[in-house]
Amino acid sequence: MAGVLWLLGYAVIVVAAALGLAALPGRVTAEIGTLIVDLPTSLAVLALVLLALLLHFLFGLVRLPRRFGRQGIHRRRRQGDAAVTSCLVALAASEPGIARRQAARARKWLGDTPQTLLLAAEAGRLAGREDEATTALRALAAKPEAAFLGLRGLLRQAIARQEWPEATELARQAEAANPGATWLRDERARLAIRSTDWPEAMRLTAAPAAKASLAVAASQTEPDADRALTLARKAFEADPGLAPAAIAYAGQMRRIGREGRAQTVLAESWAIRPHPDVSAFALAGAASPMDGIPLARTLAAANPTDPESFLLLARASLDAGLTGEARRHAVLARDAGVNSRRLFLLLAAIEEAEDPNSDAARGYLREAATADPDPVWRCTECRAESVEWHPACPSCHTPGSLAWGNATALTLAKPGIMRRLLPWR
Ligand SMILES: [Zn+2]
Question: Which fold has domain 196-285?
Fold first, then answer.
């Protein structure tokens, strides 16, 4: 529309100039040597203009029109650059009103370039005008040379709105626009975790601990039995000490009738990081509580000095009615430093099994009330606690970040914490 108006304007000027030229009165006479030229004024003016144009095109002798054009371009560029700088300063100073005004000026002088569109989007975002930012980002995404920038902005907006299918689609488009970008890979992995697409998250994650946890989750949701077994094996191989990985793989072995292999897998895991869920899963393979005793002993033999092994033998003995053995192992656990609630509940249960009105049982129950809290799953990144294990922290969504243990052990296990606590080390 603007182009048509400009054309009409030019046409009016040309017609007016032609009419004005035709109406010029008088004549022009020139004497060059012996040559005398006598022309009407209108024709003389027209001849001079034609001569100037001829000289300009043939020899570049007349440069005025082009110079005027260049000056215009330079002026626009200067104004535009100044607006870009002012907008950047306003963005850095968090002044949304100025940023938006200067972004609009930059677009007026320089047009919709990737830079001015990006500034407009950032200014809109800073001002809380998400619709404005979206419009600028969409225009940016439509430019082949800057599509990634636009898609990246739109992707962040979709993530902020927690619209996971849209975010996943935008991430796919951004990957096509700029394949292999590290930032995008991390973002896609996060998106896959948020939308519980475990196989995709596993494919995009490199850290072994995260891979093990994601493989467990992928195995649990995999409908194909063979693929579920392969994923469980991968999880166990990536981190044999991760209880859910060992249980997933042992479960697959038990499913195909390889109980011996299942018990070996659980014992290997117990040797690295014993967890009550591993022993519970191992003893679930026993036909009776008495049959569980040899299984518990085999498991405990894999890590004989760990307090978890004493607790395991105490629990298995109690289940089998061997209260004397149960008490002996529970006391060994307490001597090994266990002071948590579950130990005193176990001691109370042992006393109650022998005498339902036992004073000792009541004493242990009172001690349980003030004992240390039981170990939990805790995120090594954000420290959020969880009673159940999750492939990714429910709070900060970091994959494979949950570690089981008491607060002190986990805090010290966090990377770099010793350096911060003991700076001279
Ligand atoms: Zn966390």
Answer: 1.25.40
- What's the chain look like in SS3? CHHHHHHHHHHHHHHHHHHHHHCCCCEEEEEECCEEEEEEHHHHHHHHHHHHHHHHHHHCCCCHHHHHHHHHHHHHHHHHHHHHHHHHHHHHCCCHHHHHHHHHHHHHHHCCCHHHHHHHHHHHHHCCCHHHHHHHHHHHHCCHHHHHHHHHHHHHHHHHCCCHHHHHHHHHHHHHHCCCCHHHHHHHHHHHHHCCCHHHHHHHCCCHHHHHHHHHHHHHHCCCHHHHHHHHHHHHHHCCCCHHHHHHHHHHHHHCCCHHHHHHHHHHHHHHCCCHHHHHHHHCCCCCHHHHHHHHHHHHHCCCCCHHHHHHHHHHHHHCCCHHHHHHHHHHHHHCCCCEHHHHHHHHHHHHHHCCCCHHHHHHHHHHHHCECCCEEEECCCCCEECCCCCECCCCCCECCEEEECHHHHHHHCCCHHHHHCCCC
Residue spans of the domains in the chain: they are 196-285, 303-373, 377-421
Residue 14 vs residue 254, higher pLDDT: 254
* CA of residue 381 to ligand 1 center, whole Å: 5
CA of 404 to the centre of ligand 1 (A): 13
pLDDT number for residue 36: 77
The whole-number average pLDDT for the span 419-425 is 34
Q: How far is the CA of 390 from the centre of ligand 1 (A)?
A: 11
